[in-house]
Amino acid sequence: MSKNLFMDLSSISEKEKGSVEFQIFRLTNRVVKLTYHFKKHGKDYSSQRGLWKILGKRKRLLAYLFKTNFVSYENLIIQLGIRGLKKN
């Protein structure tokens, strides 16, 4: 996999695991894994649907974080190396 998003999960408290930032981190890890999966299995359409659902959920969480805590949003975007939301 091209991105190494590994994080020591034992050092994170239960409260932090429910945070928006951590949820976005977990969804990004799943996106990276599925992207790698599609390099071998290009016609796996049921997994593609799952990827679209994950991307939609991550987009909604990013929009929420953008509205509530912009500084944290910017830091997370830089840390994960993902694109931000489109400007309308």
Q: Radius of gyration in whole Å, from Cα?
A: 14 Å
Please identify the top-level CATH class. Mainly Alpha
Range of helix content: 55-70%
Low-confidence stretches: none
Please state the average pLDDT score.
88
In total, how many domains does the architecture comprise?
1
Question: Biggest sheet: strands, sense, closure?
Answer: none
Count the E strands: 0
What would the principal axes of the Cα set say about the shape?
Answer: globular
Sequence of secondary-structure elements: HHHH
Look at the structure and name the CATH superfamily: S15/NS1, RNA-binding
State the end-to-end distance: 32 Å
Q: Class by helix and strand content?
A: mainly alpha
Which band does the percent of strand residues land in? Answer: under 5%
Could you name the CATH topology? Helix Hairpins
Would you give an account of this structure?
- By secondary structure, the chain is mainly α.
- It has one domain: Orthogonal Bundle (Helix Hairpins), CATH 1.10.287.10.
- It has 4 helices and no strands.
- The chain has helices at 14-17, 20-40, 45-68, 70-80.
- Helix 2 runs antiparallel to helix 3 (45-68) and helix 3 (45-68) runs antiparallel to helix 4.
- The mean pLDDT is 88.
- Belongs to the universal ribosomal protein uS15 family.
- One of its GO terms (biological process) is translation.
- Keywords: Chloroplast, Plastid, Ribonucleoprotein, Ribosomal protein.
- This is Small ribosomal subunit protein uS15c.
